[in-house]
Amino acid sequence: MSGRRRRVPEGRTPVRRNRLLLGGGLIVAGTLGVTAVLWPSGGSEPAGARASTASSAAAATRTPSPSPTRAYPLSKAPRTIPAVREHTAARGPGWRPAKGGRVVVGDAALADEGKLTAGELGLAYAGRTGARAGDVELALDKGTGGPESYTLTVRGGRVRIAAPAEAGVFYGTRTLKQAVHGGGTAPEGVVRDRPAKPRRGLMLDIARKHFTAGWIEDRIRELGDLKYNELGLHFSDDQGFRIESASHPEIVSRQHLTKAEVRGIVDLAASRHIAVVPEIDSPGHLGAVIAAHPDLQLRNASGVPARGAVDISKPAAATIVDDLLNEYADLFPGAYWHLGGDEYQALMVSDPSASYPQLAAAARNKYGANATVADLTTGWLNGRADNMRAHHRTMRAWNDGFYRSAGTVRPAKDIQVAYWTGKEIGARQPAEYLSAGRKLINYNDEYLYYVLGQPQTFVYPTGQRIYQQWTPRVVRGSTAVPARYDAQILGGVFAVWCDLAASQTQDQVAAGIRMPLRAMTQKLWDPRTPTLSWTEFRALARQLG
Fold it and tell me: Where is the Beta-hexosaminidase bacterial type N-terminal domain (predicted)?
């Protein structure tokens, strides 16, 4: 600027303005904007200016005028993944992290969330104290709403996140973190948010392919920021057993996670309100156990071994599996457990009783003259469920572990259905499970199966297809189940299977599942059709990192 003062053209009708004196200068605020008048440094104002100022002061004495305020447009909802469910707009500058800002908590139970958020946003953690301008306040509010709901309020130069439980507060901090990412501003107003589905997860097959603890921990951080609450670990299969064992060290693969590493994974997950759901699949997919105990392998009437299947007519088979379940119950203290139960080779032949007469005999001996191999296998599932029920777990099993041909023995009613396929022998539609009152978790292999090497008919799922076509009610294929079953569908899990383990590195897996995870959390969090197009959603994902 030249330093010259602007003059009002002669003959123009003056417009009434409010005047505010700041530090020796005069700011004149009017209907057309703000005009700044600066006196020369170290000098005094001209006589005409003194007269104008005196006249204005006299007028102000007669008619008080409000102090000038900046006019802000109505705020817009923060741009996050998943998108927030509700936002009440307001006028104001919003909030962004600044020097001197703090994170304060209203309850000591929120210390972990407070310290994490402070570190991420470059703020100080001040613990339990009153909030002031520039601060983020975290609070427990036992009002209405589920444990994962929260309210985020930006007002008066500060942020308040309140929820009925710690998980909701954590999700509120994730919204705030995304809103200010890259120098952004959390908009003025109130966010009221909650998930549509209670189970939102990623499952990793760490049995067929070894993933490092550090890589798994990176996925946990990613899941937490996306408001997922579950990480499944399938760590036992035909190709490997990948966690250290004290009860049966002979079955553990050379490359494996130590128990110390697993504890670190579990602790990190807990800090992000993510439950780790372990799976020891049985009575199939136990090849790593059979390699050390070949006497337990199932053989047909001709002596041909069944790959990965233990002979459930032998009590020793149940003993070793229960040893492992009991051992790992202490390592994984969460509320959920996956029992597996899928693809038992004895039930994948046309006549199980003829092919495996020892199983047929054991079924009749245990459950009566009309019992079948399917009854014996269902009894196996129930036995493992009894074991884990004693550890106070909520259990699930693959849908093809629930056998229509089992007429004498029924699966325990509290076992939830992990529905992944409709390709098994005697395939059953999802509605058959739902109409019986069972709760179901969606693992639809059409959209949610990332199978390394793309064997058989599998292709890598895309975020676009999930975003545009899938919903939690699309359980099998691409057809949704009737809306009346929606409440029984607890959520969905995106599954990484490592059938051809060398097909991708773990970093390639991370890149390949990045957009599918973002698309899926949007569909699990908000049941409505997304407002963003796929192109816009993908651009937002790039922006948020």
Answer: 78-193
Q: What is the tally of helices (H) and strands (E) in the chain?
A: 15, 21
pLDDT tens readout for residues 71-127:
899 999 999 999 999 999 999 999 999 999 999 999 999 999 999 999 999 999 999
Whole-model pTM? 0.86
**Alpha-carbon dihedral sign for residues 484, 486, 489, 494:** positive
Contact 492, 441 (CB under 8 A): yes
DSSP string spanning 221-287? HHHHHTT--EEEEEEESSS-B-B--SS-GGG--SS-B-HHHHHHHHHHHHHTT-EEEEEEEESSS-H
From the candidates 188, 230, 279, 343, give the one annotated as an active-site residue.
343
Q: Are 64 and 19 in contact (CB under 8 A)?
A: no
The amino acid that residue 466 corresponds to is: I
Burial (CB < 10 A; 0-12, 13-18, 19+), residue 55, is exposed
What domains lie within the chain, and their CATH numbers? 84-191 (3.30.379.10), 197-531 (3.20.20.80)
Answer for the pair 449, 513: CB distance below 8 angstroms, yes or no.
no
Q: Could you say which DSSP state residue 488 is in?
A: G
Quick check: 36 and 43 in contact, CB under 8 A?
A: no
Please give the helix or strand (H or E) that residue 125 lies within, else none: strand 124-128
